[in-house]
């Protein structure tokens, strides 16, 4: 790889035309989103159209948990979906699942089968396309080749994928006009342990549903006008941030290709400091790619609502409409997959790493989480007067209690080697998990705690009727309409903020699956709600339904208990770090420390008691996360060594040699070579120091193979290897700034940011 290759690729990137796709129908009219939305999904509507009524009725009973899926129903569904898929060009099917790798997995099986017929003693083989109920319900991938954390050994290879009936099947377009039928599935071992992210998410959702229903039965009067709630589910809206860079330039960066982030490189003079990229005009190539991506996602039933430039150069975001959490997780993983594939078609590369470029904003995956009933009620809707909405207050305080008791567990849920580079930086919340409620809700909780009326003037509003509409802003321009101001400002520094009728878990990393952090959140809320439910039961005595006074008494008790977790200020400030320590809130900076919180008694007991994790599953999860962290860091270290030894140091040697040769020639003709000699003297100690740091990093990398315990390995990577890598990078980046550009082979930040 040479300087010429870099420059040629930069020039080529500037001449690439946007890819054109046809989104019109046969008449040339552009198709609307509603026309294509869900067209590749075998939805309930499609099932009701293609299945016999008794079969569809039986399946709906199974979805409600009233019966298991029998063979007759499974066979009928399999036949219907096979016919539907083949009509759309499908030749294969796959059980699509989520192993513990933050990605998805799939093994394609053909619909092809062979049937033998005998004519006068001679066999004739006929090809058929078949798909049975047993093939639909489960498949058998090799379990030993996926992370299991010691639950499975290599010779214990059997594992099962099982159709998740609540997630609809869908078709993804393949090459050459073919297609693949996807069957969303869970992944379990031969003994039934969860080997995936989805199984535990489903468990946590069921636990939370059961707990909420038990609580609602204690506080709600049931009659014809107010029927009993039969189902509660979590909702999720996942904002996905990512970077897009030119694919040609990406191929010249070994660090980006291998690790997902730049291990070398300094900021250009202009990057994000003018704050002009955020919500700016989307570049043409990027808009073409995103438009095609949205079209593909619409066919898959993924409801993308928003797209925009993010803060950093070459950074963007897409966000969907809220859905049931399990569906939202599937759709987010599909969004990442489609973005990846479509970007390649446009000669772009999508980067989901939380911090691909040092010095500018990293990427998160903001999880907007709430709970809803089968009657369409959002349980986190405060209503016009939240002080009178005791149901809302009970759930609100239960969530505060969950975050207070298990904030370190939530921190473990978003920990990774990549997210560590983002958390605590200038654009992301620190490792301290706290909750922002806003001035109005804070005043409501304070008033209840102090047993006094709510003072809305204390929230900064000056009207008693602002509970519905907020204040009105006068813009002093006659042609502009009056603007209604929300009751509470936003706090973008908070890792867990209430945003009107939901909580936004902002600390989740951009490349991780949301399954694990949402599983931990569901479990913690179910546990705290169980505790508050028991407190309410004691308070209400023999009553069948708790009185208002009973509910207020418990709410008031838990408002007092949860005050330490509420914080309304700047989470980025040093003052908050000191204040959080006084409150007893943990500040977990590194992932290995966070992972250990999984096995803390209070967290492990809660996860076991709720039934979300078994002992073996929890221990295995800990080992998987520790091992992955260590491997991620060591892969980065080896990549950095290769780049410096093969490219950076040779470039420095060449530059120094050229300067020395030039200085010698200048002196020969009787001129002063002080300038050249000064540069050589400044570079030489840097080069020597870099050689020393490279040798130290090599020794650390070699010692890595001698460590067997995964916990020790993770801490070794965190405490020894990462600082050594940082020392190498500082010197390499100095050389990038100070040697001739013609000798530098790697595309620089300026080129990576601007060439799209």
From TrEMBL:
Gene3D superfamilies, per the entry: 1.20.120.1560, Glutamine synthetase/guanido kinase, catalytic domain
Residue span, GS beta-grasp domain: 91-192
Ranges for domain GS catalytic: 197-648
Coiled-coil intervals: none
InterPro entries assigned to the protein according to its UniProt record, in alphabetical order: Gln-synt_C, Gln_synt_N, Gln_synth/guanido_kin_cat_dom, Gln_synth_cat_dom, Gln_synth_gly_rich_site, GS_Type-3, GSIII_N
Protein name, as recorded: Glutamine synthetase
Similarity annotation: Belongs to the glutamine synthetase family.
GO terms of biological process kind: glutamine biosynthetic process
Domain of life per record: Eukaryota
PROSITE patterns according to UniProt: GLNA_ATP (PS00181), GS_BETA_GRASP (PS51986), GS_CATALYTIC (PS51987)
GO terms, molecular function: glutamine synthetase activity
């Amino acid at each position: 790889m040479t300087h010429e290759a870099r420059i040629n690729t930069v020039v080529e990137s500037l001449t690439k035309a946007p890819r054109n796709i046809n989104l019109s129908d046969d008449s040339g009219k552009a198709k609307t989103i509603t026309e294509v939305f869900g067209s590749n999904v075998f939805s309930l509507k499609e099932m009701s159209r293609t299945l016999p009524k008794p079969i569809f009725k039986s399946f709906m009973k199974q979805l409600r948990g009233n019966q298991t899926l029998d063979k007759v129903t499974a066979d009928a569904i399999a036949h219907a979906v096979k016919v539907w898929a083949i009509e759309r060009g499908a030749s294969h099917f796959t059980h699509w699942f989520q192993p513990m790798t933050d990605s998805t997995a799939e093994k394609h099986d053909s619909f092809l089968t062979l049937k033998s017929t005998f004519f006068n003693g001679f066999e004739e083989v006929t090809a058929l396309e078949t798909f049975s109920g047993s093939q639909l319900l489960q498949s058998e991938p090799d379990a030993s080749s996926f992370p299991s954390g010691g639950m499975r050994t290599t010779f214990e290879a059997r594992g099962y994928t099982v159709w998740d009936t609540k997630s609809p099947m869908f078709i993804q377009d393949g090459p050459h006009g073919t297609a693949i039928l996807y069957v969303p599935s869970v992944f379990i071992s031969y003994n039934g342990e969860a080997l995936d992210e989805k199984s535990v998410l489903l468990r946590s959702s069921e636990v939370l549903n059961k707990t909420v229903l038990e609580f609602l039965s204690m506080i709600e009067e049931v009659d014809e006008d107010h029927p009993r709630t039969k189902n509660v589910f979590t909702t999720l809206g996942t904002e996905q941030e990512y970077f897009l860079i030119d694919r040609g330039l990406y191929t010249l960066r070994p660090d980006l290709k291998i690790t997902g982030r730049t291990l070398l490189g300094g900021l250009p003079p202009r990057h994000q400091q003018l704050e002009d990229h955020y919500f700016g005009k989307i570049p043409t190539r990027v808009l073409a790619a995103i438009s095609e991506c949205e079209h593909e996602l619409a066919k898959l039933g993924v409801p993308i609502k928003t797209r925009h430039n993010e803060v950093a150069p070459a950074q963007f975001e897409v966000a969907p409409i809220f859905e049931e959490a399990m569906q939202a997780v599937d759709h987010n993983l599909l969004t990442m997959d489609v973005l990846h594939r479509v970007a390649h078609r446009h000669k772009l590369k999508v980067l989901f790493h939380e911090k691909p470029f040092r010095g500018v904003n990293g990427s998160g995956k903001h999880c907007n989480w709430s709970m809803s009933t089968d009657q369409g009620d959002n349980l986190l809707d405060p209503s016009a007067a939240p002080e009178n909405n005791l149901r809302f207050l009970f759930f609100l305080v239960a969530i505060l209690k969950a975050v207070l008791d298990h904030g370190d567990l939530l921190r473990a849920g978003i920990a990774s080697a990549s997210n560590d580079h983002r958390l605590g930086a200038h654009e992301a919340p620190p490792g301290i998990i706290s909750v922002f409620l806003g001035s109005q809700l804070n005043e409501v909780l304070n008033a209840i705690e102090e047993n006094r009326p709510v003072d809305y003037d204390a929230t900064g509003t000056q009207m008693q009727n602002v509970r519905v509409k907020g204040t009105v802003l006068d813009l002093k321009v006659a042609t502009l309409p009056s603007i209604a101001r929300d009751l509470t400002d936003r706090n973008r520094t908070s890792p867990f903020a209430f945003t009107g009728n939901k909580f936004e878990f902002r600390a989740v990393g951009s490349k991780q699956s949301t399954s694990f952090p949402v599983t931990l959140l569901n479990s913690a809320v179910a546990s705290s709600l169980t505790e508050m439910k028991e407190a309410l039961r004691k308070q209400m005595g023999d009553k069948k339904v708790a009185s208002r006074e009973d509910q207020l008494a418990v709410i008031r008790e838990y408002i007092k208990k949860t005050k330490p977790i509420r914080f309304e200020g700047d989470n980025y400030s040093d003052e908050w770090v000191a204040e959080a320590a006084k409150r007893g809130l943990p500040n977990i900076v590194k992932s290995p420390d966070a992972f250990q919180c999984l096995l803390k008694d209070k967290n492990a007991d809660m996860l076991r008691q709720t039934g979300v994790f078994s002992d073996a599953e929890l221990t295995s999860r800990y080992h998987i996360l520790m091992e992955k962290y260590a491997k991620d860091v060591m892969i980065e270290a080896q990549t950095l060594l290769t780049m410096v030894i093969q490219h950076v140091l040779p470039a420095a040697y060449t530059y120094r040699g050229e300067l020395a040769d030039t200085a010698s020639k200048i002196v020969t003709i009787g001129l002063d070579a002080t300038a050249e000699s000064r540069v050589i003297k400044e570079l030489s100690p840097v080069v020597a120091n870099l050689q020393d740091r490279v040798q130290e990093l090599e020794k650390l990398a070699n010692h890595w193979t001698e460590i067997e315990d995964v916990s020790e390995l993770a801490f070794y990577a965190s405490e020894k290897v990462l600082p050594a890598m940082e020392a190498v990078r500082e010197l390499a980046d100095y050389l990038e700034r100070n040697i001739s550009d013609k000798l530098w082979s790697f595309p620089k930040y300026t080129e990576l940011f601007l060439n799209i």
